TrEMBL record:
Pfam families (UniProt xref): TLD (PF07534)
Source organism phylogeny: Eukaryota, Sar, Stramenopiles, Oomycota, Saprolegniomycetes
Annotated organism of origin: Saprolegnia parasitica (strain CBS 223.65)
The name this protein goes by in its record: TLDc domain-containing protein
GO molecular function per UniProt: calcium ion binding
Domain EF-hand: 4-39
Length: 344
């Protein structure tokens, strides 16, 4: 029989509440968060670098203080539900690994994500924090786009994003130091209407952790690269005239808003307008989604090649067009025939 998430959180809390007062100091709360982040990687064979987790633990402490004045168990359960909903699965998976790892039927409730390439933005602790938001983020993350190598170009971003048939994670670091982004539960498609589902959420990792889940609206994802009447760019939440998070087609007039009808309120960036320092997009749909993108690119290339072909036989059959556009090509033969006729 599985324990409830609340009972698992109480068990975790009791480990750090040695005095059984029902409250923790800020230092003890930081130790709790750091311990859980390290538990997430307990089964990894890689060497631990604790420094890679400390920043995320500090961001969680800062987030907790914005959520509650006292560090008590009820506030901890409430904060976890809003900001790290799968924290209990990390602890239960760690306990199962320690106690029942030898049993062949043991199935972990949490799997730490793996990256196809190193991230230029995310620390290991921040990656674990994000993986605690959705089960879909507990698998291999394929790097689809990075401004560091692909260039800060909207065209390049579109190329690497379109055709991928799974959920994606946007990660952005602004020039002012804020790190934020969005999880998108639906494959991206180029159109002038909103799409997506309630699995989408917005988030901020630095300077403190903030998660903005769906809040009842339907304007989740927006991706318009061709339309003239509506803004061209990539957005989430809000409306077509004012998204909650928006990356314009030049990637130099990006902005965020404090609230919208689709996601819970909260400030993502430190300023409403921001300049991108580094931008990454990760695919979270596994091998099948990457394979689908390869097929999409092959089909797109085939359509482009067909569009470029010209029916030369039909083109040159028209005497005027042949003389007008291909005169130099066919002129020599025409002149030779004319001279031969004159000599007869």
């Amino acid at each position: 029989m599985r324990s409830s998430s609340a009972s698992i959180l109480r068990s975790l809390w009791s480990i750090f509440d040695a005095s059984t007062t029902g409250t923790l100091s800020e230092s003890e709360l930081r130790q709790l968060f750091l311990a859980v982040l390290l538990m997430a990687d307990a089964t990894s064979e890689d060497a631990f670098d604790v420094a890679a987790y400390v920043g995320a633990a500090d961001a969680m402490v800062a987030s907790f203080h914005l959520h509650a004045n006292a560090i008590s168990l009820p506030h901890f359960v409430s904060w976890t539900s809003a900001s790290w909903p799968l924290l209990h699965t990390v602890f239960s998976a760690w306990m199962a690994h320690k106690c029942f790892a030898s049993l062949p039927s043991t199935r972990s409730t949490y799997m730490a994500p793996r990256l196809s390439h190193p991230s230029d933005i995310l620390s290991r602790g921040e990656l674990i924090a994000l993986s605690g938001q959705s089960m879909q983020l507990q698998d291999t993350w394929d790097r689809l786009y990075t401004s560091t190598q692909d260039g800060l170009s909207f065209n390049r971003l579109c190329y690497h994003l379109l055709g991928y048939a799974g959920p994606t994670l946007i990660v952005c670091t602004a020039m002012d130091g804020a790190t934020f982004g969005a999880y998108c539960d639906t494959p991206w498609k180029d159109q002038s209407k909103f799409f997506g589902g309630p699995g989408c959420f917005l988030y901020r990792l630095c300077p403190n952790l903030l998660v903005c889940p769906s809040a009842g609206g339907t304007n989740f994802m927006y991706f318009n690269t061709k339309g003239v009447a509506l803004p061209r760019g990539l957005g989430l939440g809000g409306t077509t005239s004012k998204c909650r998070l928006f990356f314009d087609e030049d990637l130099d007039d990006c902005y965020t808003a404090l609230k919208c009808n689709t996601f819970a309120p909260g400030s993502l960036s430190l300023r409403s307008s921001f300049q991108i320092q580094t931008l990454e997009i990760w695919g979270c749909g596994g091998a099948a989604s990457r394979q689908a993108q390869k097929g999409y690119r092959a089909d797109t290339a085939d359509l482009i090649n067909k569009a470029r072909k010209v029916d030369k036989a039909q083109f040159v059959s028209n005497g005027f067009d042949r003389e007008m556009f291909l005169g130099k090509t066919f002129g020599h033969g025409t002149d030779a025939a004319r001279i031969a006729d004159d000599e007869q």
